[in-house]
Hints:
Helices cover 26% and strands 35% of the residues. It has helices at 30-43, 58-70, 118-132, 148-156; strands at 5-7, 10-15, 18-24, 74-81, 84-93, 102-109, 138-144, 160-170, 176-185.
Amino acid sequence: MFSFGRGGRRWRADTGLGRVIVEDARPDDAAALLGVHSEVLEEGLYFITEPDELTESVASKAALIRDLNRRPNARFFVARLEGEAVGMLLVQGGNLRRLHHNARIEIYVAARARGAGVGSALMSSCVEWATENPIITKLSLNVFAHNVRAIKLYERFGFTREGYRAREYRLADGRYLDDVLMSRAVEGDGAAGEGGAFSA
Ligand SMILES: CC(C)(COP(=O)(O)OP(=O)(O)OC[C@H]1O[C@@H](n2cnc3c(N)ncnc32)[C@H](O)[C@@H]1OP(=O)(O)O)[C@@H](O)C(=O)NCCC(=O)NCCS
């Protein structure tokens, strides 16, 4: 098991591939992160978006990084391995008041950096950040039912299945994919307790 240190908004972990640092992404990471994003989509196995449906540019990725890292209930994290951006995790609470507390997660690690602990480092940073965040009380995500590696990662971080949608997605060749909804509660000091948000 690797250990975690934390200085400011930066987490460090020793992985099978060297020292990984997780921190807030910067707008100048946009080109590298767009590269990781398109590489993962090219694999065709893990996301709804097909590679030619990715409409983001370096400028729009930079704008998204700025936007998420300015919001009090969102973060765009980057994982750097020996200085190179090899992964990212986006965690976004909803914009509507009734969804502020519920943050959705998306995670991408470049194929060359998988299986060494980078995804774990991103998830660990995210859970710690969410636990300290006074707004977020729930983390949720969707994952294809066949994505066993990702599901195992989420389970290791305390996520449980809260729903299953059969034949939710249809591939170009006519095959269907099932969708799993997973979530976990996060309870930091600032989080409202049971019924807290609604207590009169
Ligand atoms: C899912 C994903 C984010 C996981 O990231 P990852 O970096 O591969 O995850 P980790 O390396 O932390 O954990 C994966 C494995 O490595 C092992 N591992 C963790 N830390 C380790 C370390 N320090 N040294 C060696 N192995 C380690 C874990 O035990 C785990 O093993 P297992 O799942 O085979 O039992 C990544 O595979 C990915 O981006 N996949 C494609 C996109 C995707 O599926 N995104 C999620 C869509 S919902």
